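Supplementary Data S3. Sequence and structure tokens for construct A.
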Amino acid sequence: MIRIKQYDISLKEQRNNKASVKTTTEVKQNKKSTDDKSSKLKEMVEKIRKLSKSNPEEAKKLLKTLKLANKDNVISEKTVKELEDLFIKDEEATKSDKTTDIDDKRYKMNKMVDKIKSLSKSNPEEAKKLLKTLKLANKDNVISEKTVKELEDLFIKDEETKNDGTAIRSCENFSSVETRGLVDDTRMVLYGYVNQVGKLSQPMRNKKGRIFREKILAGAFKRAIDRAKENNNPIKLLFRHNNKDLLASTINSSLNLEEDSVGLRFEANIVNTTLGRDVYNYVKTGLISNMSFGFRNAIDEWTTENGQNVRIVKDFDLTEISILDNPAYKDSIVKA
């Protein structure tokens, strides 16, 4: 009996030792797992801080992932709050920039309204062009619909007066003459803004992988257009930057370009080809509504705004403008 008891005690001790070893191993494994998780989450924290300036959208996604993975509070609530505050500051700065932009835009557009009114009598054609520009640039309704309607009415009244006068003169001088003419409905005219100067682009990435935003200084487009005219270098209107997909050109005046107080305005008589008709219909039906441009020989400088890399383009040679659906500048617009 004594031997059996001793044997039982020995078995119990062995089991206890094994359990102790197993528990110690599990503790070590759990600690290693926690340490690994802590290390990974800390790396994520640093990455979020770095990306918050250069690529805020990616940083926000990472912060969401961090918060989901941080159930055990490996990263303190204070650190998480600090990361959230990074984006609140950026959003406040962006709101401030937008407010300043709207104030600048309101001032420019009010001046345009005054100019349209003054030109409506002396130079109605120029006034109509300016009104078209105003309506394109007024996406944010900075100028009220009532004011725009009043401007439109100026030309309706003038046209009614002009038509009445023309009809009377026709009756007096050609009472027995009837005239016929073919209506030219084959012209496909597109117009809009390629770029609004001084506005930041969407985030872009250069060949070295550097993320940045870009803006064009006022006057740069005018200099580029004037230089192209002097050197007889045509500027083309393309579809999606493809040189084979030519829609219009300054070489035959089917493309007209002008930099005004808003930005680079264009008007184009689209070539009557299968591609031309397709692109015209894309725009007319609203499938495509944006523009881009191609340039070379840029003179620029780099700076930072709200922690973001910004390329300021001061001068360049403009080679083409393009109709497309994924623009770097969201404020661009094309209409039929």
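Construct B, processed identically:
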Amino acid sequence: MHPSVVIEFMDKQGNVKSHPPGAPVVKIVIGQVKASDPSYPSGQNQETVYALIDTGADDVYIDEALAARLQLHRTTSREVQGATSTIQSWAHAGFFRFSGTQKNYAADFVATPLAGNGRRYQVVFGMQLLDKGVLEMDFHRHTYRFSLEDCLP
């Protein structure tokens, strides 16, 4: 059985509700992994935040201030292209799990200035992650869910 979570919707002020309109988000716990084993949480520096479900994004992104606060380890230099600019950044090794579940997933989070650009969510799940799961956005039945396959580390 794959962990499945209800998608909620965040307005521009950061208020979250169970139905649209708003940006689709899921509540996650995110944190540091052990340097010796990047697939295993370190047990330190964890926070509960909201992640945007963004089918138009390629990667998995994290607010740069959150990455620094969690002291996530840098892995590789990355170029991030936005609608109006391109910046140099870093990918950071971390883990996440859906709030209320126990299964942890390792991920490389690319740091970007989300809060600096007025975003209230602190993580973005792009297609690199979303295509490994099942995304259900049924506006007729008011069913909004996301689940991940067990193929992730």
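The helical segments are 64-70, 127-130. The mean pLDDT is 91.
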